Structures are given as C-alpha cells and as structure tokens.
C-alpha cells in the first residue's frame, strides 16, 4: 500500500509538470497550433502561445531558416507563469535571427 501511494505521488508530479513542445518554421503560419507538422511562423506567436501553459516546462524549437523579428521580444521574470522555458534549434538545424 505504501509503495502504491508513492507511485501515485510520483506520477502526479511527473504529469503535473509535463513538457510542452512548440515548433516555429519560416514557412509556418501564426494561425497554426505550433506542432511539428503545423508550426508557427514567428517567434512572438510561439512565445505568446507558450505563456498559456502555466506551471509547465515549455520548449520552443526553431526549424532551419532565417527569422525576422518585427519587435524586440522581452521575457520578464515577474510575470513569467511557466516552470521553465527553453528556446533551441530543432535537431541542431542552423537558425538565424
């Protein structure tokens, strides 16, 4: 019984802080859901969507290409609802901002 309770607690913790992965690609669309097959087009859209995952670990992966930033992207810790945020290139693909 003690081990069952421990297992339930560990699973609840694991699923409570599950990772969310979002994708961005130059040929994507900001109307897309941000999946690997339907990525966002802009880093700003991906970040705005990521912020809806309160308390989660979010990874934003950028597909190969060049990204034009219309505005500076600011991330402030005071209003940061995520557990963690990681920005990286997908599978080591070259990315330019």
Q: How would you explain this protein's 3D organization?
A:
The protein has two helices and five strands, in the order αβαββββ. The protein has helices spanning 2-16, 43-50, and strands at residues 19-24, 57-62, 65-66, 84-89, 95-96. The longest helix has 15 residues, at 2-16.
Question: In brief, what are we looking at here?
Answer:
The protein is an alpha/beta fold and 97 residues long.
Write the layout of secondary structure elements.
Elements: H1 2-16, E1 19-24, H2 43-50, E2 57-62, E3 65-66, E4 84-89, E5 95-96
Parallel strand pairs: 1-2, 2-4, 3-5
The run of helices and strands is: HEHEEEE
Helix content: 10-25%
SS-based class? alpha/beta
Counting DSSP E segments of at least 2 residues, the number of strands comes to: 5
Average pLDDT level: 84
Instruction: Write down the overall geometry.
Output: globular
Across the major sheet, the strand order is 1-2-4
Uncertain stretches: 1-12
Main sheet properties: 3 strands, parallel
Distance between the termini: 54 Å
Task: Report strand %.
Answer: 15-25%
Number of helices: 2
Give the radius of gyration. 16 Å
